[in-house]
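anyone seen this seq b4? input:
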Amino acid sequence: MSRTAGESWGKQLSRARCCRPMRLCDVEFLLTKLDPLSQGIADRLVLVRVQTDAAVDGWGEAPVPWRVGELARRREQLLPTLAGRNILDLAELAELNVLSPPLRAAVEIACWDAAGKALGQPVARFWGGFYRHQVPVGQFVGDMDEDEILTQAQRMYDRGVTCWILGTSGQIAQDLEVLRAIRDQFGEAIQLRVDARRRFDFTAAVHLCLQMESLGIHCLIDPLATNYWQTYRRLQQESPVPIAIRRGLKSLRDVWAVCQCGAARHLILDMYELGGPLAIRNASAVAQAAQVEVSLGMPASVGIGLAAALHLGAALPPLVHAHNLWQYCEDSRIVHPFAVKNGMWTVPEEPGLGIPLQRDHWELLTLARDF
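predicted toks r here
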């Protein structure tokens, strides 16, 4: 860990690392699911619980496609790698290549949670403190080929959310018609982001951008089906609409490459794709240095990953919005729904992630068999 990075996490963490180390002594995996708001496949989530020799535990979660029957074997495989490590040496834990990026993120989140509980501090204080106590949310409204898209937009407007994400239909004329209708009905106060989902070739993407110029679109997300960033750079040069990239950002190297060549004016960073909160912090610093706007992709979550994302949003000034693409059923397995009020998520300020439930509560969420 570098001296600069260590100091930015706060004096309490530094002092704690100089005292008796708090060692990771066990890890546990539980499987749960998150039902979608409309028809579709439920999200499969693995809950990760780390335990320390100081009788402090921490929780993380990740979208990992495991099954109930393999959880015990996974624990047996990973425990020798994790056991005995100082839980406060987060940079070392975050670099364990034996873990996939989503699982590495979950373990790191759990360790931050345990560290916060041990020191009596919310994890945002380890990442620089509370720059903001409420995080603006950009909320997915629906696809532009849905019959009820304007009704869904009205519902979002009534909730006070003014940053909307709209999924493309793949048909430029239809998308433009819906965007004009939304502008006519709700005015210029709404920030519109269009998720193109890599559906267009270069020529069609240029045409779409030119047609959207008069509609005040905040950004067009992932218009091209390529990770060749020079092609995105050409598109950004010809487009009057800011281009955003979310898919394809798998590492800090990808973030660096996009920023270096000027491929986009906006990045949407995913904690599970990049491998954890520390990776998000490093990536956002690179983007800020390149004067590229950054949003944080919000994960499908029963509450743990969402809490971690909110703490990142609280601590990191470059993260201008929480980019939320998931919606959940009201009766789904949500531990803490973090209700949106006036277009904002309030960041929990209790120790750790700020989710106070114990293991027996989490057991109510877990699945006894696969789905």
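The chain has a mean pLDDT of 88. The chain has two domains: 3-121+358-363, 127-346. kinda curious what u guys think
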